[in-house]
Design a protein that fits this description.
2 domains; Nucleoside Triphosphate Pyrophosphohydrolase; hydrolase; Endonuclease III, domain 1; 349 residues; Adenine DNA glycosylase; 15 helices; iron
């Protein structure tokens, strides 16, 4: 138990004061866990506070519209999380009478809740002895025990899961889970971990074998896809033409502008591209380039161009999801971060 005791002792001195650590409310814990997926605490905290203020209970969350949830989520990325949360909240209303479940076997059946999140919620809310296994925990275990099995392989997930569960303290699983996650986040960081002050350095395999930078091992990431999206700005007085993204793709159910995606950088001098524009906006359309932005996602690099259109006739057969809205209404709709950046830079200077 020396490993666990040292982790908990370190945690008692170095832990951050975070609002979701002062509650056993499974709904509040769920909010924090989903918001903080793929998100730094500093970035996620304002979103957590806004969501909890707007929707203090899971029933309040379930009563919201998808548009309201995605608007509040705007800028946080991975928008499927927000859509899944709304589905889950409504599931809880239907299947659990609005009472958020606290047991692992019930939680794992809910949409958007995987093994890590189910373990976190169940241990933090009810004291169930389920070990959490997130990126921080993977890193601490790989370095301390000297495990070079790739953490994102089937074998690695099984090996680390069994090890993590064997280390859990059945007396206070919540405390140990919080401690090891915080230890990985603050002490055993991915780069430049603070080994000189680490209480585990004497028995840490990676420290003793000069393998800190090599562990944990992770299989190579998926190749990055490059995309080129060309947006067209159509204005009519105080209204602007917007498009709802309905397909299973990035920014699903968010609102952007009518667009054409091309295989490479597009130019209005390119006859094929310009003919495509005319098919959507009429033979006499006038096109003015406005702005170019490079946008980075986890596995995609998106090059975006914005064009202002005049003298256009909209072909709604090719733009079935397009509609006119006022600028005020558009501000209330959830939209990709890149559109907010464009609007702030171009229209609100």
């Amino acid at each position: 138990m020396a490993f666990q005791q040292e982790i908990i002792r370190w945690y008692s001195t170095h832990k951050r004061s975070l609002p979701w650590r002062d509650t056993q409310d499974a709904y509040v814990i769920w909010l924090s866990e989903i918001i903080l997926q793929q998100t730094r605490v500093e970035q996620g905290m304002p979103y957590f506070n806004r969501f909890l203020e707007a929707y203090p209970t899971v029933s309040d969350f379930a009563a919201a519209t998808e548009t309201q949830i995605l608007k509040l989520w705007q800028g946080l990325g991975y928008y499927s999380r927000g859509r899944n949360m709304l589905f889950t909240a409504r599931q809880i209303l239907e299947l659990h009478e609005g009472i958020f479940p606290v047991r692992y076997n019930d939680l794992i059946k809910l949409k958007g809740i995987g093994e890590y999140t189910a373990a976190a919620i169940s241990s933090f809310s009810s004291g169930e002895a389920k070990a959490v296994l997130d990126g921080n925990v993977f890193r601490v275990l790989a370095r301390y025990f000297g495990i070079d099995t790739p953490i994102n392989s089937s074998q690695g997930k099984k090996q680390f899961s069994e090890l993590a569960q064997s280390l859990i303290d059945p007396g206070d699983p919540a405390l140990y889970n919080q401690a090891i996650m915080e230890f990985g986040a603050l002490q055993c960081k991915p780069k430049s971990p603070d080994c000189p002050s680490c209480p585990l350095q004497v028995s840490c395999y990676a420290k003793n074998n000069n393998l800190i930078a090599a562990l944990p091992v992770k299989l190579k990431k998926l190749s990055v896809k490059t995309r080129h999206i060309n947006y067209f700005i159509c204005r009519n007085g105080d209204e602007i033409l917007v498009n709802k993204r309905i397909y299973d793709d990035i920014w699903q159910h968010l609102y952007d502008f009518p667009n054409i995606e091309t295989a490479e950088v597009a130019s209005i001098e390119n006859e094929q591209f310009f003919n495509n524009i005319k098919q959507n906006f009429g033979e006499n359309v006038v096109v003015l380039p406005l702005m170019e932005i490079k946008h980075l996602l986890t596995h995609q690099i998106i090059y975006v161009q914005f064009f202002a259109l005049s003298n256009y006739i909209i072909n709604f057969n090719n733009n079935a999801e397009a509609k006119w809205v006022s600028w005020a209404d558009f501000d209330e709709l959830p939209q990709p971060k890149i559109l907010t950046k464009f609007i702030n830079n171009y229209f609100k200077e």
